[in-house]
Design brief:
By secondary structure, this protein is an all-alpha fold. The protein has 6 helices and no strands.
């Protein structure tokens, strides 16, 4: 981008948000990676994968539900999501998935 356009964008961001672009990115990433947000991500994932899903008739049967949970758990442990492996490392990802997919 031409220098004039770049300066105008920087000026607009400073006026609009009251700080630099870098500071805004840092704040957004800090919020997205905060403990509360990570907990929310895990809860959403867990509820999606192991929620009761009342609309699914196949999951109304407790035996079929447990079989499905077991298959999904083994699938996750054998082939963990790439993003989790990149972010946390292979060992921590497997340990975290094992802990979060335990039966209660």
């Amino acid at each position: 981008a031409p220098p004039v356009l770049r300066r105008q964008i920087i000026y607009l961001v400073r006026i609009t948000f009251g700080s630099t672009i870098e500071r805004q990115i840092y704040r957004a990433m800090s919020w997205a990676g905060s403990e509360q947000q990570v907990f929310w991500y895990i809860q959403c994932f867990k509820n999606t994968m192991w929620g009761d899903c009342p609309g699914n008739a196949e999951l109304d049967d407790p035996v079929k539900r447990e079989l499905l949970r077991g298959r999904v758990r083994m699938s996750l442990l054998n082939t963990p999501p790439h993003l989790l492996t990149v972010l946390f490392g292979a060992n921590k990802t497997k340990k975290g998935l094992a802990k979060n997919t335990e039966y209660h």
